[in-house]
Amino acid sequence: MLDLKKIRENPQEILKLLHQRNTDYQLQPILDLDTQQREKQSIKTELQARSNEIGKIIGQKMRSGVNSQSEEISRLKEEGNNVKAKLAELEPEERELKAKIDALLLELPNLPSNTTPMGKNETENIEVRRWGDEFIPDGSHILPHGEIGEKLGIIDSERAVKVAQSRFVALVGMGAALERALINFMLDRQIDAGYIEVIPPVLINSESLQGTGQLPKFAEESFKCENDDLWLTPTAEVPVTNFYRGEILEAEKLPIYHCAYTPCFRREAGSYGRDMRGLIRLHQFNKVELIKLVHPQTSGEEHEKMVNNAEAILQALKLPYRVVELCTGDIGFSAAKCYDLEVWLPNANTYREISSCSNCHDFQARRADIRFKEKGKKGTEYVHTLNGSGLAVGRTMAAILENYQQKNGTVKVPEVLQPYLKTDILGNNEY
RNA sequence: GGAGAGGUGGCCGAGCGGUUGAAGGCGCAGCACUGGAAAUGCUGUUUGGGGGUGACUUCAACGAGGGUUCGAAUCCCUCCCUCUCCGCCA
């Protein structure tokens, strides 16, 4: 949520920043409503002040023995009633204006950071760096990971679709073990890097989704349990950031680092037909997420460090990747600045997103009301929140299957995973 | 699902119709005492919105929303949440 005060004080500047996202936004309706609301509020405050005053006077008189039936008190009571009648008229109007303003504010995305490169859309994202040697097929045929998985008997799409529907897969035997090994490996590494693990609820309420920015605008992206105010979490970012919703943290507690493994659920609305095969775009996938709550002054460097933490996983797995900084036209709703990690997929001969690391500044903190207080200082400040995948597990498996496949159809196990899997080769699965 | 208890400031906890934004305690900060510390004493210590350069002032908030009243943390209604016991259960 953007700061209404800043919008009021500097609408042109805010609008300019919003338009860097390459979408049209309006601030005038908010400004108009805000003027009306403030006017009503000041009248309301005056009436309330008078009403309080009357109450106090009556209280004093009655304590000092004035008869409650006396003319004096009756007159005051009558005035009190008049004030109340006016308030009764004003209050709902004022409340409605406030609600309208809030609704509009919730629809506005975050402002891009001034370091975010300008651009219309994903074609103008900027490659920051590359790591590792791309595995270029030398004439021999490279299979897509989905096919490798099916051949090895470690991915079973057909039965998953029977059990659920399309865009679901099941992992079997060494496939399941590999997924589990990846989750453990990623968590172990991030815990070593200083993140505290959380296993949060994966059914979460509407307030939480609003807190991190998925609601109200992106309701159609999540699965909802219709009988309850509960949704399937689209990413652990939501429950873990909302862990601290409505709290005032002590400044010394910052920065807070969390990592969390959860399954993630997304409708993938609007992506009909895209990435239908394999592990790339599913309704349910596993992810290890990194979440930080930090002091505003440090969020820039904390962001870079978080990206490095995610990169460390790819490096340990020896998977080639590149880091891309998203331009103003491509960053997500809540993000001010965002880096994507894209892993090399030789079959598609391209890099595919495997992690997205966002610095949300105080945007989510404002929505979720997460503040901190410095000892000895007056007042509170909003924290900055960051989140990043460390990493998307299914896509990591996809990358391993493609980058580690061998001519005989088996797949080597990355060295760092061998202790977890107790084998160095995937193949000859008896399933 | 059945029965009961309860939700008050950073925390504990009192208040159950009238200058109560809220006693008391803990914690925290400052000062005093001390060679230094502990102990002790004194003072201060919620958040958000308006207005003023400022001392300051005003409004709101005692789970949420309504109601009664001149006046509600206190009374009434609805909802939400937590806890205890019983039942069921991975």
State the main characteristics:
BirA Bifunctional Protein, domain 2; RNA-binding; 431 residues; 40% helix; 3-stranded antiparallel beta sheet; elongated; 20% strand; alpha+beta; single chain; 8-stranded mixed beta sheet; Helix Hairpins; 13 helices; 2 domains
CATH architecture of the largest domain: 2-Layer Sandwich
Q: For the CA atoms, what is the radius of gyration? A: 28 Å
The number of distinct helices, counting runs of at least 4 residues, comes to 13
Tell me the major beta sheet: 8 strands, mixed
Beta-strand percentage?
A: 15-25%
Instruction: Count the beta strands.
Output: 18
Q: Average pLDDT, to the nearest integer?
A: 92
- Return the CATH topology of the largest domain: BirA Bifunctional Protein, domain 2
Counting helices, strands and paired strands, the structural category is: alpha+beta
CATH hierarchy, class of the largest domain: Alpha Beta
The percent of residues in helical segments reads: 40-55%
**Overall 3D shape:** elongated
CATH fourth-tier homologous superfamily of the largest domain: Bira Bifunctional Protein, Domain 2
Strand order of the largest sheet: 1-11-12-13-16-10-9-4
Total number of distinct structural domains: 2
Please give the alpha-carbon distance between the first and last residues: 51 Å
Q: List segments where confidence is low: pLDDT < 50 over at least 5 consecutive residues.
A: none
